[in-house]
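R.M. (postdoc): so does anyone remember the format we settled on? I'll just put the structure tokens first.
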């Protein structure tokens, strides 16, 4: 329904870059509904998302949010180098109100390419741009844990938990890092807080599952 609404809006105002950005988001969300291994379902929808984002940028070259979307969807559709160039251009644009999002997306692209060193650079860049950006801390911790740098991951998540107090996702991740390090009581306390802060949300539900597993150990 949203997709059709945006198409109708564009037919009435074909020069509106915001409508094209919204159309791209709708296509990308439809792509997210495809099974991970169903490229026949996912890739055409991502191609439509890319086309919509390109049109938004064509209509407004200074629309950095649309350029960030374009880069992200290009990467997801397999055009990784082109996508990273668009993300870098968006990050370097002096009018970009949220460069940390572009930096985090660049880091994610490098992490998917098994380049943890470059991924770490961009996740740290995102944090440097916005110390309240929880997703950047979580991505950095994932990168460090993938390299078995458990103490470094814990250190970063502890900093994040102080900077962004009572964020359920950070509490969940910090508990998981503590658990991996064998600090079970610390893990339990963080999961209990995550469950209390987000009882019906994904972080809270996952924390409750982990607490039940911890009790059985």
């Amino acid at each position: 329904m949203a997709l059709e609404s945006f198409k109708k809006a564009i037919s009435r105002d074909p020069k509106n870059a915001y409508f094209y950005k919204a159309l791209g988001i709708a296509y990308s969300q439809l792509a997210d509904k495809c099974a991970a291994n169903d490229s026949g379902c996912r890739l055409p929808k991502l191609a439509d998302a890319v086309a919509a984002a390109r049109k938004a940028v064509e209509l407004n070259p200074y629309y950095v949010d649309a350029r960030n979307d374009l880069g992200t969807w290009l990467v997801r559709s397999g055009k990784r180098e082109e996508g990273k160039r668009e993300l870098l251009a968006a990050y370097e644009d002096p009018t970009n109100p949220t460069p940390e999002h572009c930096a985090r997306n660049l880091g994610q692209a490098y992490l998917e390419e098994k380049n943890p060193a470059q991924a770490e650079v961009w996740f740290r860049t995102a944090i440097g741009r916005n110390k309240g950006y929880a997703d950047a801390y979580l991505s950095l911790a994932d990168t460090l844990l993938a390299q078995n740098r458990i103490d470094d991951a814990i250190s970063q998540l502890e900093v994040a938990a102080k900077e962004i107090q009572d964020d359920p996702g950070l509490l969940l991740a910090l508990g998981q890092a503590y658990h991996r390090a064998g600090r079970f009581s610390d893990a339990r306390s963080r999961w209990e807080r995550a469950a209390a802060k987000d009882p019906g949300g994904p972080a809270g539900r996952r924390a409750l599952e982990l607490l039940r597993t911890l009790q059985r150990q």
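R.M.: ...and that's the designed sequence above, right after the tokens. Also worth knowing: Residues 39-59 form the longest helix (21 residues). DSSP finds twelve helices and no strands in the chain.
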